[in-house]
From TrEMBL:
Originating species: Polynucleobacter kasalickyi
Chain segments annotated as coiled-coil in the UniProt record: none
Alphabetized InterPro entries for the sequence: Cyt_oxidase_maturation_cbb3
Keyword hit for Transmembrane: yes
PANTHER family xref list: FIXS PROTEIN
Keyword Manganese annotated: no
NCBIfam families: ccoS (TIGR00847)
Transmembrane domains' residue ranges: 6-26
This protein's name: Cytochrome oxidase maturation protein, cbb3-type
Keywords: Membrane, Transmembrane, Transmembrane helix
Amino acid sequence: MESLFLLIPMSLLLVGFIVLVLYWSIRNGQFDDLEGPAYEILMDDDTHHESSPSIKK
């Protein structure tokens, strides 16, 4: 029973911290574009850059 006096306030602080982090991430636009990064990896960059090494035969 005495452990509940410690565990309940600690769990409330943890939930409050999680809510603050979620609120911060929503306000800073972390969830604005959920599909863009998934499609970005599929876009193939076929251009050759001058600084990249190329294989010559």
